[in-house]
């Protein structure tokens, strides 16, 4: 029974991470979570970024997002790795690719995803 419950917990956490970027209760990873983007919201995207935990990366990301409406954001770190999430209003779908390209071009980037 205990193994089954652990399996359910891990599967639920993995699904939430893939679908929303949430990493709550992670053991070896920074913990972040934001409220879900309502399914009726067609202009908000979630930027999810894992990067090396060094000074200046958040400044670079925020400079990229400066021309957009950032609804909410959160960041956390664990050791040498940091995790950043932001919900951004993007009126033009071309801007999604522009944001993605600029964030992934940051030298400390490990992986970036855009969820919508």
Annotate the secondary structure layout:
Blueprint: H1 2-20, E1 44-52, H2 57-65, E2 69-78, E3 81-89, H3 93-104, E4 109-115
Antiparallel strand pairs: 1-3, 1-4, 2-3
How would you describe this protein?
- This protein is of the alpha+beta class and 116 residues long.
- Helix content is 34%, strand content 30%.
- It contains three helices and four strands; from the N terminus they run αβαββαβ.
- Strands 2-3-1-4 form a four-stranded antiparallel β-sheet, with helices on one face.
- β2 (69-78) and β3 (81-89) form a beta hairpin.
- It is globular.
- The relative contact order is 0.22.
What key phrases describe this protein's structure?
four-stranded antiparallel β-sheet; 116 residues; alpha+beta
Structural class: alpha+beta
Sheet having the most strands: 4 strands, antiparallel
- Estimated share of beta-strand residues: 25-35%
Measured as a percent range, the helix fraction is: 25-40%
What are the secondary-structure elements, in order, as H or E? HEHEEHE
Backbone shape: globular
Mean pLDDT: 93
Provide a concise account of the structure shown.
The protein has helices at 2-20, 57-65, 93-104, and strands at residues 44-52, 69-78, 81-89, 109-115. It is α+β, with helices and mostly antiparallel strands.
């Amino acid at each position: 029974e205990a193994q089954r419950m652990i399996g359910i917990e891990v599967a639920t956490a993995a699904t939430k991470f893939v679908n929303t970027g949430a990493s709550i209760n992670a053991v070896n990873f920074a913990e972040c979570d934001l409220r879900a983007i309502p399914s009726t919201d067609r202009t908000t995207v979630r930027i999810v970024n894992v990067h090396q935990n060094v000074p200046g990366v958040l400044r670079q990301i925020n400079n990229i997002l400066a021309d957009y409406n950032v609804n909410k954001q959160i960041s956390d770190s664990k050791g040498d790795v940091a995790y950043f999430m932001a919900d951004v209003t993007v009126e033009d779908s071309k801007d999604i690719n522009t944001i993605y390209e600029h964030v992934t071009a940051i030298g400390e980037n490990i992986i970036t995803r855009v969820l919508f």
